[in-house]
Write a structure and sequence with these properties.
With 737 residues, the chain is α+β, with helices and mostly antiparallel strands. It has four domains: 432 residues, TIM Barrel, CATH 3.20.20; 76 residues, Immunoglobulin-like (Sandwich), CATH 2.60.40; 87 residues, Sandwich (Immunoglobulin-like), CATH 2.60.40.10; 104 residues, Sandwich (Immunoglobulin-like), CATH 2.60.40.10. The chain contains ten helices and 34 strands. An eight-stranded parallel sheet has the order 7-6-5-4-3-10-9-8. Strands 11-12-13-18-15-16 form a six-stranded antiparallel sheet, with helices on one face. A hairpin with a 2-residue loop joins strand 12 and strand 13. Helix 6 packs across helix 7 and helix 9 packs parallel to helix 10. The longest helix is centred in the N-terminal third of the chain and has 18 residues. The termini are far apart.
Amino acid sequence: MNKPSVQSLMAVLVVILAIGAPPHPSPGLSGHPLPSSELRSGEGRGPEGGVRPDGFVGTCYSFYPDPYGQVPGRPFLPLMIQAGSRWDRFDFSWPRLEPREGQWDFAAQDALVGDLRTAGMNILGILLWTPDWAATGECITTTVALAAKREARPAQWYAPSPRPTIAPTGPPLCMTTPPRGLYEEWNDWTIADNDPINYWGRFVYTITYRYRDSVKHWEVWNEPDLSSFWSGTSTDYAQLLKVAYRATKAACPDCTVLFGGLAYYEKPNFYRWVLNQLKDDPDAPAHNYYFDAMAVHLYSRSSSIYDVTQTIRNGMREFVPDRPIWLTETGVPVWDDASVISPTLPYIWSATQEEAASFVLQSYANARAVGLVRYFFFRAHDDYCDKNRDGDCADKGIDYGMHELFGLARNDRSLRPAYAALQVATTYLVSPTLVTSVNYASGVRRVTFWGTPWGKISVLWNTVPTPMTFAYPAILPTATLVDQAGVTRTITATGGTYSLLLPGATANNGISPSDYIIGGRTYLVIEADIVPPTATAQVTATGALTLAVSWSGTDDATAIWRYDVQAREGTTGIWATWLNFTTATSALYTASRPGLWCFRARAWDSAGNRGDWSEAACATTLRDLRVVVESVFGDADGDGTQGPDELPVTATLRLLDAVGAGVAPPVVGTSAELTATVPPGPYWLDAVPLGWPSPPSGWLPRRIPLEVPLGPGPLEIRARVGLSPHRASVFLPLVCR
């Protein structure tokens, strides 16, 4: 079969705008629009609609209105859907929802949730902030140092500053404090018992119950390891999480509760302190240790998405059973957008717009490679604080929002190169069967997405500043090269490799001029083998507990890479993995007990396509045995044959296994048929004359060895049993002391 090219599967990738032409052009974009079917909100493979985003990607705050009030509705929402985002993450702010005790205001939040669900967006809600009436701390308003908005950054780490609701002041300190009554029972919402109300438990239950049909995922606070968000202790946060988990599960049993997203670098052991306390709670195992997934926030350095996630996963496993990890914020601020901020000045942890596009693909690839289950880009648009566009963010009552440029889109809805890069990721890097990663000594980083709807795709970038030519091993004669702007071209293999020139890294706004926080311009290599291989399995029994199993596979375009093999007992048992991702094509299987055993295999081809399971191949280590005893007689002359004067003897006939256990019901008579289904091996035919033990001139019992060989079909053994005469008995005295 000829393989379809990427171009025949989908037009060259470009950005499509839902709301008119942007005031600024999108740099580096060319080609043809995506078919409208590519922009639907479904997930995974679409047989009639092509490849669609698989739900891995979300964005933060895509619901915002037009900052300038010129476009109605939520103009950034369709842009994010077209970028491949299927999630929005935003605050369910307690002070806004319950500004005064017992006085709830749901109107705006109801409308927001409804709009997002209608648009096909999933929601990750952040349960956040303490209202002043429930606070345990003094409500002192903090001042945001606007002059230092971009220059003053810690050398070791980076995260966006908290988003103030009204500039130039930040959130009152009391909003970051543990709520009153936090250590009461989670559902203690009365003062009739003469102790405080657990206000936090009541808030969480109220919110998660109200939105239980629309919002299934909740993040408990934001960056609790940053003092600017959480001024309580790790013990206080552990309690906050416990209460939130119990309240959420009571309101919505099928909801998912996330540990608050970790900023990590300020307090890298914060999550360990919390988990250590959760582990010691005797009720924790019954409540899944009070969280279903861990959340992390990692910015600016694309490799941190892989490295820090591994560190956090390993640390988490020291205290609690493993669980999924979500990347609920990632991004990098850009410094070179003169259309928004002038003059343009680089600063620590910032990047150019093109470097930020590289960051998107690199962070996305690393997120998949390290096993993250969700990826949220911060943020949909800048929400830049200069709302009246007069060159500063200090106009009281007018200006508010972010002081750095994180957006995939600008406030005016024009798109940055990072938007196109995200669309490349959500179009091509979807629904893989497997993701692997390699760091080459040369500085090249390769993350491979196997078995996607497009074929085998590798994401490649150079982590060092020197450009280099990389020899990429080919599995097909041609491939499609996609750059981070979505532009495609066909490349041809020579001598079994594609020769790729990878530009050097330029993003050196790290902790030193030689620290490159983002790799160079990033590329995808797509080899369009999308047809899965087929496999067959064979098995023969070789012993009572051993079976020889073999398997093979065929593929239409590339070689077979690996196999998975499963086994089950009988025809109705549960399939269990025996061999996983093996290169072997045969092996001996040791069964747990004799019987019928079945096997099936599936093949992986060199593009990572994983075929269907083969038909089951079965074999039994048991054999139907029929022992026909034609006669039991007294063999008076001991010649083993029944003479005319040697009469039948009534005996109890038993079929015994090697250790003397019966394998068939005993029969009393002078002849018998004994049947059983048995594994191969040694057996005994036991004949005991009636009345034994008897005085002399009777007959002695006899035990005849039988052998059941391995083989197909039933086995019949016929026998005549001659019993020896009982001529004398000797009695020995029994002496007791």
